[in-house]
Amino acid sequence: MVVYKKTKSLNEAQASYLAGIVDGEGTITLTRRNIYKNRYLVLTVSNNELSLLEYIAKITGVGKITRKNVHSVKHAIGYTYQVSSRQALDLIRIIFPFLRTYKRRRAALALKHYLKLTPRNGKYSPTLLKRRGEFADKFLSIVP
Fold this sequence. Notes:
Residues 18-104 form the Homing endonuclease LAGLIDADG domain. GO terms for molecular function: endonuclease activity. It holds the Pfam family LAGLIDADG_1. This is Homing endonuclease LAGLIDADG domain-containing protein. InterPro entries: Homing_endonucl, LAGLIDADG_dom. With 144 residues, this protein is an alpha+beta fold. It has one domain: Endonuclease I-creI, CATH 3.10.28. It is built from five helices and four strands. It has helices spanning 12-25, 50-60, 85-95, 102-113, 126-140, and strands at 26-31, 40-47, 64-67, 79-84. Strands 1-2-4-3 form a four-stranded antiparallel beta sheet. A hairpin with an 8-residue loop joins strand 1 (26-31) and strand 2 (40-47). The termini are far apart.
């Protein structure tokens, strides 16, 4: 049995700070590894300051930081902090009260429906698959 890391609990100052970063520099979305897979929940923050992303990873206890590929010497090196699926849902639950942009509506939808539409074994009935597709369409239609 796989044991997932749990998101650390954050105090109000940390949660509101993280929500501000997500509102300004982050993304709450549904993505997939390839076109044949179902979408999964992802929270990302992209920034040029590695120390900021390391701080986020430290206080949350989950997620990973990756370096973006730089294709021009004119571009600064960028990094992305990413947390996905149930860990993303846990983190969204913590920062939700402090979100202010359209990401709040996306977060509310994810908190309400994501777990009900995501079986742990990854096996979807035709009905559940249809409902999950409708959820993804509604979720992704929420834009700024």
